[in-house]
């Protein structure tokens, strides 16, 4: 078991509101970690601290440490821009840029200084293949990304992340806007992606967490109630609140 | 049981209610149709009047001749050239200034601070200031203080001030309409703020920015009052060759002709108006095409 | 589609097969130990059954995990249901094996009251049945399952023959009563094993078709 991200005593405030309370969690490399919990429990806020996307929101405050390969990302040992390159984020709603498929994939690499056409072409092919989208779009790379279906758009967004050759993939409810077939395709994709990346996925669907993840964390009111191996958490949860939530007896 | 009584209530009300609602529908449709019709009618009459008086005087000579005391020989060449000079410079100044300010206000400045609010209030206010006031400002600052004299540069700078608030507000609207998710998507790839602005924000906002700018520049093209203040001449018999030359523009030339006693000059003025309108139409058309090109690229 | 789940299901089926093979071995060793009066073999059979029990728990856990995490439906659900019930049958079969081995131990080196003919014959049939029932489950072959279940009738006949034979011995030779009762129990165990095997076959048919069938 190799730990990619080690979070210790993380507390997070929006203004005076404590959104995360003393979270400690180990994210394993080449494993899928799922975070579940009711709306507003802090799971999305949590994964956005992992690549410091919350920096973009005014009036937030973070305490505690987040170690990526042992380096503290909060103390500017890693620059935020560099960090986001290494820790990619895929959003809830597919958000491809209103550009061609090709331009979407090379958007990041180009801005990180890769100009060579052949190299960019290679990145596009590899990333789209990595996101299991290549076969569907290889003939229309220069067509608009917005013409793709929702599921394809989301896979394009994953490809866009892969193009940066990240080490960690964060997914914020990546399938909540998709139909079941598209969801299944993306879930399958995770199976292959986890061979190379540490994946953290926030999901509303407990079933999804069960199907795809190795470890699961249950958040409630900004607190990490329980964290452990998925099969154990789903068959023998330690905490009563976890049991109530996953069995649908919540509230 | 309850459900049934509720249904009955609607049944009683149904016929009368629907008739009234439908009547209201028709009344409001008529009112707005009338409002639109009024505008079109007046515009049509005006256009008809101008075309009737001016079209006969419109010729290549009219466009190629310098102004003259004799209506038969009078032309619009210098005013046309002046207008093109002034507007090009105005566009050149106002576009980057306006878009830059809008970007600062929307993307960089701290929202909600008193400075920001003050700026915002002033910009909206300035959009409503009469153009003659800008003329006086131009006269004081550009002509006298900076000693640009009564030149194209002074005129263009004055018009720039005039339309800047409009461009800023329109650009702000356009920039604000860029979905937050796109910007976040860009940031999440480890892309810097400036790269996000050039890569996502501006391309997305450009059609909106262009629309606002086109309207503003069209307005500048028709302005006479502030330019009279900064001293555009009524009679220029040469073509300007640098931004520091003195100049006239179409609206002033037209204004000048309409104030002459001879009847023929009124006809020439009409012909001048046709040229001005054609120029406006051309400029707008070009800009709309440019905008559509960007919009298509987006979709 | 759902590669991960299919892989897990395949692993589960392999574990089920493994458990089946272990159970067969328990029965085989137990019956052999009785025939050869080999106490060592009997102890071995008893020990082997611990592994069967361990496998049963592992399979049960895995089934529950799969139900909790993968939400199987339709045939997938029936597959897991069939395995869950099937391991209970196999566990019982293993226990009967242990019982037979214990009888071997209790008879010890005492001379047998009669040469064993029908019991080994019955055991051979049952071993084939068990083998075939697991194979039909693995291959999801309902035809084979039906054929296997039908053999039960032959086992019942054999049991009746043995019963009558031992009954006669019992009434004629009270000295051998102890042994005769033990052997009667062995026959009874073997007959029960065949019934559990039939259960596995019926469950195979339910798994594949979704229909309940009652054979015999």
TrEMBL record, chain A:
Recite the UniProt keywords alphabetically. ATP-binding, Cell membrane, Hydrolase, Membrane, Nucleotide-binding, Phosphate transport, Translocase, Transport
Keyword Nucleotide-binding in annotation: yes
- Looking at the UniProt record for this protein, which Gene Ontology cellular component terms does it annotate, in alphabetical order? plasma membrane
Q: Which residues form the ABC transporter domain?
A: 5-246
Recorded hits in SMART domains, A to Z, give: AAA (SM00382)
Superkingdom of origin: Bacteria
Q: Name one GO biological process term.
A: phosphate ion transmembrane transport
Subcellular location per the Swiss-Prot or TrEMBL entry: Cell inner membrane
| EC id | 3.6.3.27
Function in brief: Part of the ABC transporter complex PstSACB involved in phosphate import. Responsible for energy coupling to the transport system.
Q: What is this protein called?
A: Phosphate import ATP-binding protein PstB 3
- The species is Thermotalea metallivorans
- Name the encoding gene, please: pstB3_2
TrEMBL record, chain B:
CDD domains given in the database record: TM_PBP2
Q: Could you give a GO molecular-function term held by this entry?
A: phosphate transmembrane transporter activity
Q: Which UniProt keywords apply?
A: Cell membrane, Membrane, Transmembrane, Transmembrane helix, Transport
- Which compartments does it reside in? Cell membrane
Output a single Gene Ontology CC term carried by this record.
Answer: plasma membrane
- Claim: Signal is one of the keywords in the record: no
User: How does the protein associate with the membrane?
Assistant: Multi-pass membrane protein
Q: Would the keyword NAD turn up in this protein's UniProt record?
A: no
Q: Which GO terms describe its biological process?
A: phosphate ion transmembrane transport
Q: Give the NCBIfam families listed for this entry.
A: 3a0107s02c (TIGR00974)
Listed name of the protein: Phosphate transport system permease protein PstA
Species for this entry: Thermotalea metallivorans
UniProtKB/TrEMBL annotation, chain C:
Locate the PhoU domain: which residues? 17-103, 119-204
Tell me where in or outside the cell this protein is found. Answer: Cytoplasm
The answer on whether this UniProt entry bears the keyword tRNA processing reads no
Its GO CC terms?
Answer: cytoplasm
Q: Which InterPro entries match?
A: PhoU, PhoU-like_sf, PhoU_dom
Q: Which UniProt keywords apply?
A: Cytoplasm, Phosphate transport, Transport
Q: Name the major location.
A: cytoplasm
List GO BP terms, alphabetically.
intracellular phosphate ion homeostasis; negative regulation of phosphate metabolic process; phosphate ion transport
Per the similarity annotation, which family is this? Belongs to the PhoU family.
> Per its database record, what is this protein's job?
Plays a role in the regulation of phosphate uptake.
What interactions and quaternary structure are annotated? Homodimer.
Q: What is this protein called?
A: Phosphate-specific transport system accessory protein PhoU
Species per Swiss-Prot/TrEMBL record: Thermotalea metallivorans
